[in-house]
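Design a sequence for this backbone.
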């Protein structure tokens, strides 16, 4: 075996080892802590819930919000009716960054490029060309589910 064959043989095996190590490091395992705002981060098949919130101890006041599972849900009125909440994808339609809710102004802001959205999800400024994607809110007893 000449030097070139030897190096190709050795680096090929090293590359495969490195790739498998990186894949293992990036994969989820059973030791990853669950999202405290979503008691069901790995829903069972058929359960399309993106986020589940217990209304008896979370989101008690207007402008309270919970973010997780790729969504943000905000209490916009008192009571536990569906119309008391609004929910959107937390993904900015401009470049895919995560938007944040600003309770003091009742708006959403994307820190990456400064797109702004009102409480209805419509664009109010910045480079985003469309509003936030609206999600469905369902309530059963004191459990709010975003789908």
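Sequence:
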């Amino acid at each position: 075996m000449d030097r070139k064959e030897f190096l190709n043989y050795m680096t090929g095996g090293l590359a495969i080892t490195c790739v498998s190590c990186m894949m293992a490091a990036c994969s989820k395992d059973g030791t990853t802590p669950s999202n405290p705002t979503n008691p069901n981060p790995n829903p069972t098949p058929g359960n399309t819930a993106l986020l589940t919130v217990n209304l008896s101890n979370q989101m008690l006041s207007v402008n309270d919000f919970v973010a997780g599972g790729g969504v943000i849900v905000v209490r916009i009125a008192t009571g536990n009716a569906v119309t008391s909440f609004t929910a959107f994808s937390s993904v900015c339609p401009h470049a895919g960054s995560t938007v944040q809710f600003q309770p003091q102004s009742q708006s959403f802001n994307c820190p990456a490029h400064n797109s702004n959205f009102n409480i209805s999800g419509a664009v109010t400024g910045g480079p985003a060309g469309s509003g936030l994607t609206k999600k469905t809110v369902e309530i059963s007893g004191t459990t709010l589910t975003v789908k």
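Residues 14-45 have pLDDT under 50 and may be disordered.
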